[in-house]
Task: structure prediction
Amino acid sequence: MPPCPPSSSARIDLVLIGTRGQVGSAFRQQLAAQQAALGARAGLDLRLLATFDRRGLAFDLEGLPPAEVEARLRPYGEAEREALFARLREPAATPTVVVDCTAAEAIADRYPEWLAAGVGIATANKRANARPLAFYRRLRQLAQAQGAPYRFETTVGAAIPLLGPLQEIVLRGERVHSVQGVLSGSLSFLLERLHAGEAFSAALAEARRLGYTEPDPFEDLRAEDLARKLLVLARVAGFELENEALEVEPFCAPPPPQTNEAAFLAAEDRRWRAAIEAALAAGERYVMLAEVGSAGARVGLRRLPAQHPFAALPAGQNLVRIETELQQERPLWLGGPGAGPAITAAGVLGDVIAAASELRDRRYASRRFSVAA
Ligand SMILES: NC(=O)c1ccc[n+]([C@@H]2O[C@H](COP(=O)([O-])OP(=O)(O)OC[C@H]3O[C@@H](n4cnc5c(N)ncnc54)[C@H](OP(=O)(O)O)[C@@H]3O)[C@@H](O)[C@H]2O)c1
Result:
């Protein structure tokens, strides 16, 4: 039975990294809207102790107003940021959750020290879990040994409850046979436009204009981000893979250096037009599929019947099919919006609430045990 909640709300501090990013900004708005209600609803008094991005930092022992924090941000140096991190590691510090809304390797570098100090992490940043397997295992072990919540639900499929249910399947000892999914919003958008008859160059320009791709669209087209998602998904599902074990077929390989961009795009337009026409004539559509199973792990294009749930999926939606030893004939399907700052921030807030509740319950239980002893 979980320990009884204390009569008053438990204070848990938050440190938000990525203050003015898309997800970080949406997270601040949602935290501001929910902060007061979380006392009654969850017994939590969440305070924004500090927040920073690369350009500014704000700190307040009493808690910052999340929605109006921009005016409090001021330039800072490395020493100030390190003093903040040192504070988190102090044994007497208020239980804290670091909220990582960046895609920064430099922030992922710090996860081991935070978990080792019992600091919780709620992250939308998939970099840490897509590193070599030894690093991923170390994070999971530190989290378990130190009782530090480590939550990363939004790193695959945004706010779709996907990694949590998968983790539960694995914890209850049910072997996962395979996972397949459509997990890239930007590549699904491109495919939808191509199937509608648009030229590759026009679809790519539109995706860039709408902010669906990274500033360098080849980061999406090389399928590297999708490969990272598959690696995280596979590891959570119990396939302990190294990055090199993934077969990655790019959506479109970048042109060799010195290639004329217009000639490259014209060639891609012709290649895609022929491929799409052939698929449609056969009653099929292309999907960019990420899949892992006993045969290995692969990210790449597949042609599927147009009525297949993956092929009929509207752009912007993610869908995952999970087959386990108990769910073979009727596999588990999970789907929903796979990107967008507001929905992702909602998933991060969910992770923060879960992590903060865990820290509160642990602290309360340890007090109870020390009184009993
Ligand atoms: N957007 C989505 O729909 C979505 C969906 C699922 C997951 N995600 C993930 O969520 C994360 C954030 O995405 P986003 O779209 O919000 O990105 P974004 O708009 O580019 O924001 C990134 C933020 O991180 C900050 N940052 C970068 N490096 C930093 C560092 N070393 N130290 C401190 N701050 C740093 C940036 O600060 P500066 O502005 O000062 O550089 C900025 O505030 C990414 O990992 C992304 O993959 C996003």
Observations:
- The chain has a mean pLDDT of 93.
